[in-house]
Amino acid sequence: MITSYKREPKIDNNYDAIIIGSGMGSLTCAALLSKEGKKVLVLERHYVAGGFTHVFKRKGYEWDVGIHYIGEVQNEYSPIRKMFDYISNNKLKWEDMGEVYDKIIIGNKTFDFVKGVENFRSKLKSYFPKDSIAIDKYIELVFKANKAMKKFYLEKTLPNFLSSLFGFFLRKPYLKYTSKTTHEVLNSITKNKELIKVLTAQYGDYGLPPKLSSFAMHASVVKHYFKGGSFPVGGSSQIVKTIDPVIENSGGQIVVRAEVKKVIIVKNKAVGVELYDGKKIFSKIIISGVGVFNTYNKLIDEDISRSYGFKNQLKSLKPSVAHGCLYVGLKGDAKSLKLPKNNLWIYQDNIDHDKSVEIYLKNQSRDFPLVYISFPSAKDPTWNDRYPGRSTIDIITLLPYESFEKWEGSSWKKRDKAYENMKDKISKRLLEHLFDHLPNLRNKIDYYELSSPLTTKHFVNYQKGELYGIDHSPQRFNQKFLRPKTPIKGLYLTGQDIVSAGVGGALFSGLITSTSMTGINFIKKIYK
Predict the structure, then answer these.
(1) Are 457 and 323 in contact (CB under 8 A)?
(2) What is the pLDDT of residues 11-30, one digit of tens each?
(3) Distance in angstroms (rounded) separating the CA atoms of residues 323 and 2
(4) Looking at the structure, do residues 380 and 433 belong to the same domain, yes or no?
(5) Which among 169, 194, 225 is the end of a domain?
(6) Are residues 323 and 312 located together in one domain of the fold?
(7) Full residue range of the structural domain in which residue 174 is found
(8) How confident is the model at residue 277 (pLDDT cuts 50, 70, 90)?
(9) 286 and 385 share a domain?
(10) What Cα–Cα distance (Å) separates residue 314 from each residue in 65, 171, 181?
(11) pTM exceeds 0.85, yes or no
(12) What is the b/e burial string over 87-113, where b = at least 16 CB atoms within 10 angstroms of the residue's CB?
């Protein structure tokens, strides 16, 4: 059972491993180590565990803050499904979203993304019959990039001496795809700007528009959804609920409201952590799942961080995009309200993604560069049993942190009227996008609440309210220090900064970190 530090739970002085943060990477590490008989302590500063997989409740509703759909889990033999089954002891279940998982809306045109590679190919060709060759080439490149990815991440698990000998050869095939932007690759196979805009319409899933994002990241997301999208049965809170017993089976525990002040380092060895109340807990293995910026800027003494050059390494990285999410509650069930299971991606017509972002960042009163709408209560088959006669919607858009910076330092739920007015103005603009496509909902809204980048900073502790950790630019993939093992003995990293954006990336980061740390071939065990 997950306990709060404020309730003074029994915490031992020593553990086999201590994990800072309880996001997907941390939970995966904790579960894998626990299944090897290790006693693991997971420490979370928030009052609820799970990172971006947690839920919150308000006014009789429940919203998932980070999970809107997951790919590849309907195939029970896929790596991601096998991993989820392994770390949850087969307790985590999934609901397929159906044939159409994303609807791309550009002006007055709609393009369906349908599950199944050949179905996807055929549907795209029906929209763009003159671009058949380009579409085939695009799908081919998506698969080639993902195939090259495996050796790239395998290299991250190698000991330093093996990495120095063979690392370049393992990394080189993938760098061919990471080093080019998404736009560079697509522009080389087609000059049809509308096709490029449609193919890159999921850029919100990794945070950077085509001319800034690495094609490798784009290809990873696209392939992830080729076989459709799914949603966790019972909501995303089921992820931590099904993993927690696995951790407890080996004597470990997850403790919330337990903020780590620093990692204790003695003679180049991480030996424990110190909490903000001064309590010290010890272990020969410390894993940070709170991002490289938080780890190197906050959890390690500055003189130590500087001596290892961590500060200089961080200069080569940028935080990913900040966002806002409007959480909407409605009276009525999904069927009566005619809510779809598929997501909506809404864009302006006659302008490319990059230009749209550029214009918006200069003036936030201009049109949103993208509006993403998800219908979680329609995706979860248990929703009506848990919340009869109610439904929820999430509406997400880009909100630059700088627009909210003037309120930095103020407290959550205690910010001034100007802040609340600004949020309400944004909320109403987002609701109009919803009503444009589902006009029947105009008088059905019971409650809404907007999270700003300051909200993300408060709960997830990302300093600029970023959603995906580090920007997934071509430069990001060239940073060799983004690997599980740090130069400090016993200190490891996990989370989406080590692999890539999203729950799937964080899940695999937990696998890579655990493999790097133990030398165990977990994939072999998972498929056994």
Answers:
(1) no
(2) 999 999 999 999 999 999 99
(3) 29
(4) yes
(5) 225
(6) no
(7) 117-225
(8) very high
(9) no
(10) 27, 21, 21
(11) yes
(12) bbeeebbbbbbeebbbbbbbeeeebbb
